[in-house]
# Entry
Amino acid sequence: MSQQELLEIFARQVVKYARDDVITFFDDFFTGKTRSTTGQILLQKYQEAENKEHFLKEYMIPYAVDSAIEVFLQVFDTDLRFKISIQNQQGEYVDALDLTDGCEAEYAGEDGWAEKYSMHRLGLLKVEHEETSKSMKRILKKDDGV
# Structure
């Protein structure tokens, strides 16, 4: 397989998962066709929100960005043909997966990269996918602007 073919495989993965799937999620969300638990809860909260602009800015923009980053990192976590290499102080390259069990979990997990290093609001980032329903309801109730 040529280098160009490898690059195209990587490009298709990134575009499909980090771009197209996230856009599809939000297209479904805004047309009321969302089937995911997260999407249904978000849609209900959006419909109930008195200040929809506030809801979009505070929750949906960060959620869209975080979703894209998470699925981008999943490409590296799940497809071993692709690696993120980090150069150490000795000039050697280390595979990021040798340093962690998964980059996506490091990014979005409790006390994860985004929470530690982001200078902007986290929105719904702290919501774990397995506990979406309970966690999202609790987080969204805390915001009196919604």
Observations:
- Residues 3-142 form one domain.
- The beta strands are 85-87, 93-95.
- The helical segments are 3-30, 37-48, 52-78, 103-108, 113-117, 132-142.
